[in-house]
Amino acid sequence: MAPVLILMGSKSDWPVMKNAAKMLEDLGVAWQAQVVSAHRTPDLLQTTMQQAEQDGVPVVIAGAGGAAHLPGMLAAFTAIPVFGVPVPSKQLKGLDSLLSIVQMPKGVAVGTLAIGDAGAANAGLLAAQVIGSFDPTVRAKVQAFRAHQREQVLQGSKLELDA
């Protein structure tokens, strides 16, 4: 299977988007990352999605800040599921990015995650869940991840409170 494609509008988005890569690695899912700007390299954006279709890429994760057009533009060129991660911006702390990604017109779907690191990690998890819907090995790893999270919460819930 082709790797999950992690795209970002700028190299400066990597500190956030590496959280998606880490989650995918932890769940045994291959990934590939590259920079594709919706505004500065629109021709590369289109050819990247054409190649992704040909290669059988199962899911695309796209991180973008500011105007954040990348996830929506990618989705316009493919039927591959696209998950958008709003990258925090200097001026509006990612709220601008979130609104740009989440406000897709009817008929062009982008799954939008939370702003920043948590959104990127959850995009990786969601991509693994999609792949796990047809790959039992990945599904088992996602289930093990969830069981581990549950155990962590249960262990932490046994607090000794001072009287």
From TrEMBL:
Q: Which InterPro entries match?
A: PurE_ClassI (IPR033747), PurE_dom (IPR000031), PurE_prokaryotes (IPR024694)
Residues in PurE domain copies: 2-153
- State the Gene3D superfamilies in the record: 3.40.50.1970
What does the record give under GO molecular function? Answer: 5-(carboxyamino)imidazole ribonucleotide mutase activity
Catalysed reaction, written as an equation: 5-carboxyamino-1-(5-phospho-D-ribosyl)imidazole + H(+) = 5-amino-1-(5-phospho-D-ribosyl)imidazole-4-carboxylate
List ligand-binding residues for substrate: 10, 13, 40
Q: Name one GO biological process term.
A: 'de novo' IMP biosynthetic process
Listed pathway(s): Purine metabolism; IMP biosynthesis via de novo pathway; 5-amino-1-(5-phospho-D-ribosyl)imidazole-4-carboxylate from 5-amino-1-(5-phospho-D-ribosyl)imidazole (N5-CAIR route): step 2/2
E.C. number(s) listed in UniProt: 5.4.99.18
Q: Which UniProt keywords apply?
A: Isomerase, Purine biosynthesis
Q: What does this protein do?
A: Catalyzes the conversion of N5-carboxyaminoimidazole ribonucleotide (N5-CAIR) to 4-carboxy-5-aminoimidazole ribonucleotide (CAIR).
What family classification does the UniProt entry report for this protein?
Belongs to the AIR carboxylase family. Class I subfamily.
Q: What is this protein called?
A: N5-carboxyaminoimidazole ribonucleotide mutase
